[in-house]
Amino acid sequence: MPTRLGDDVDDYCIKCKRLTNHIVVSLLQDDPAKVRCRTCHSDHDYRREQAPPPKVDARKAALFKQVLQNATGSSGGEAVATDPAAPVEAAKTE
Ligand SMILES: [Zn+2]
After folding, report:
1. What is the reported pTM?
2. What is residue 89's DSSP assignment?
3. I want to staple 26 with a disulfide (CB 3.0 to 4.6 A). Which of 20, 33, 52, 93 is the partner?
4. 27-20-49 Cα angle (round to 5)
5. Which residues have a Cβ under 8 Å from the Cβ of 13 and sit 6 or more positions away?
């Protein structure tokens, strides 16, 4: 049975830091694309109940940022083109 907008799904909420009930707010080919936590009401990409990987330390984050800047500088920005299937909301929901 395809998922529909407004359906309840279980997913991992980064704010609640646990599996909570979510409402489907965006669909992609019958799969939840974005969900809203029913506990804290924050929207985020559907994670298929997977917890996010552990936080990287600051040094690695800085390195990654540097690599990203190098990539964008050499390719005119194409390297950071995001997958349309995964809207970039992560930074906002942190
Ligand atoms: Zn939550």
Report:
1. 0.56
2. -
3. 33
4. 60
5. 19, 20, 22, 37, 39, 40, 42, 44
Distance 30 CA to ligand 1 centre (A): 23
The SS3 of residue 80 is: helix
Cα(10) to centroid(ligand 1), Å: 11
Compute, in angstroms, the gap from residue 57 CA to the centroid of ligand 1: 24
**Residue range 10-35, pLDDT digits in tens:** 999 999 999 999 999 999 998 999 99
Ligand 1 centre to CA of 84 (Å) is 24
The span from the CA of 86 to the CA of 69, in Å, is: 21
* Predicted confidence (pLDDT) per residue in 61-72, tens digit: 888 888 888 887
Q: CA–CA separation, 86 vs 33, rounded Å?
A: 7
Provide the token pair at 76.
């005119």
